[in-house]
Design brief:
By secondary structure, this protein is α/β, with parallel strands linked by helices. The protein is built from 13 helices and 19 strands. Bound molecules: dihydropyrimidine-2,4(1H,3H)-dione (DUC) and zinc ion (3 copies). InterPro entries: Amidohydro-rel, Hydantoinase/dihydroPyrase, Metal-dep_hydrolase_composite, Metal_Hydrolase, Metallo-dep_Hydrolases_sf.
Length: about 450
């Protein structure tokens, strides 16, 4: 078995921080300690580097059919870009087609990801049509290692389920020990506001933002938490963006309910002032939309208060030409934003280096908490003996600039063009293999494996 010794790095996990050596044998970590008295086939000198567990992005949409087109990163290009940014595992969404089975959707997604992904991946199952036959499939999905079930409370007619279906799904998922997640926005309210704006000839990207005010998210987040509390299911709100929604979660904690919360890197760093009256704002047309500076502050505080456990991306890239499908009507702009590659470096530079979060919080929200919530811990999400050797070596001082010219995502613009970051991910290991080093990809198409997941372990 090949062995690799990583010497003298500052090894940081969610609950430890020490300069030491890591011995990797095959795909896993064999030993950790100061000055390990071992010889290995290869040695990496990590002096001056910070070593953290491989990042987990629990919210990505790769090669996904949506709004009349497909998101532009495939499982190959998306997971490769993820590796360049230190994300070694991504959880992608399988979308059930209304009127069809979960199995059909899973087979379709497996067909796109199997043998093509470069980084490790798993799937959430988005249940868009809960009925007696879908109900019977829940246990089959759990048996396949798909233990999280996504719901959309918006996108009526394509993805949305109603509250009756929500209750039934939660009851069934609870029976099988799974987790229900939600895109928690009030679809009917949003559809009404979109129709009103269009009827008034208000068609620029700014009206995308004005069609999804904070109340649409706060209302649905509270409703989701209430139904979850009634059914007793494990619950998780994806891409939470704002104060009103987080207050609903805070309220739930007061009755000793636990609702997991994910925000995404863009909601921490970007705000709605990017939606001007020209088409440029289409770069940030995503749902929910970017919010206000006061919401960013609430989210950073929420991380430190332990109310927000996860920072993902909702990576859902579209080429500029695809965005232009909505050049004359904001409601036709494919919703989504590219970020899978830059989540960790953005969070390190703007979070850790600017003193908003500690290095250990960084590890928790970028990796460990997702591993625990989504049933992959301790195989993923930490640096411990027996865990997968998914390791990220960061040069904490090195400066670099984000640009579409140099990124690896298959999309022709960046939402962060020209941002100068401090802290660069230099080397990334995935299951013991150097996957990225000094900007070069070292593993190929098909190296990524499907990760079977278990119950919540948080
Ligand atoms: N929001 C997006 O912006 N894109 C994909 C799906 C979603 O909910
Ligand atoms: Zn059952
Ligand atoms: Zn969503
Ligand atoms: Zn999403």
């Amino acid at each position: 078995m090949a062995s690799l010794l990583i010497k003298n790095g500052r090894v940081v996990t969610a609950d430890s921080d020490a300069v030491c050596d890591i011995l990797v044998e095959g795909e896993t970590i064999a030993a950790i300690g100061k000055n390990l008295p071992v010889q290995a086939d290869e040695t990496i000198d990590a002096t001056g580097k910070i070593i953290v567990p491989g990042g987990i992005d629990p919210h990505v949409h790769l090669d996904m059919p949506f709004m009349g087109t497909f998101s532009s990163d495939t499982h190959e290009t998306g997971t490769r870009a993820a590796l360049h940014g230190g994300t070694t595992t991504a959880i992608d969404f399988v979308l059930q087609k209304q009127g069809h089975s979960l199995r059909e959707a899973l087979t379709e997604w497996q067909g796109r990801a199997t043998g093509t992904a470069v980084g490790d991946y798993s799937f959430h199952m988005a249940v868009t049509d809960f009925n007696p036959s879908t109900k019977e499939e829940i246990k089959d999905m759990v048996a396949e290692g798909i233990t999280s079930f996504k719901t959309f409370m918006a996108y009526k007619g394509a993805l949305m389920i109603d509250d009756a279906q929500m209750v039934g799904l939660m009851q069934e998922v609870r029976r099988h020990g799974g987790l229900v997640t939600a895109h928690a926005t009030n679809g009917d309210m949003i559809d009404t506001l979109i129709a009103q704006h269009r009827a008034a000839g208000k068609l620029t990207p700014r009206y995308h933002y004005l069609s999804q005010p904070e109340v649409t998210e706060a209302e649905a987040s509270g409703r989701f938490a209430d139904i979850a509390n009634y059914t007793g299911v494990n619950s998780y709100i994806v891409h939470l963006t704002c104060e009103g929604a987080l207050n609903q979660v805070r309220r739930a904690t007061e009755r000793n309910q636990r609702v997991f919360v994910e925000t995404c890197i863009q909601y921490l760093l970007l705000d709605a002032s990017l939606y001007g009256d020209d088409f440029e704002g289409a770069k940030w047309v995503m749902s929910p939309p970017l919010r206000e500076p006061k919401d960013q502050q609430t989210l950073w505080a929420g991380i430190n208060q332990g109310l927000v456990q996860v920072v993902g991306t909702d990576h859902c890239p579209f080429m500029w030409e695809q965005k232009r499908m909505g050049a004359d009507d904001f409601s036709k702009i494919p919703n989504g934003h590219p970020a899978i590659e830059h989540r960790m470096e953005l969070l390190f530079s703007e979070g850790v280096n600017k003193g908003r979060i500690s290095l250990q919080k960084f590890v928790e929200v970028s990796s460990t908490n997702s591993a625990k919530i989504f049933g992959m811990f301790p195989r993923k999400g930490t640096i411990s003996i027996g865990a997968d050797a998914d390791l990220v070596l960061i040069d904490p001082e090195k400066k670099h600039t984000i640009s579409a010219e140099t990124h690896h995502m298959n999309v022709d613009y960046s939402g962060y063009e020209g941002w100068e970051l401090t802290g660069k991910i230099e080397t990334v290991l995935l299951r013991g293999q150097v996957a990225v080093d000094a900007g070069e990809t070292k593993v190929g198409r098909g190296y990524g494996q499907f990760i079977k997941r278990g119950p919540v372990n948080y």
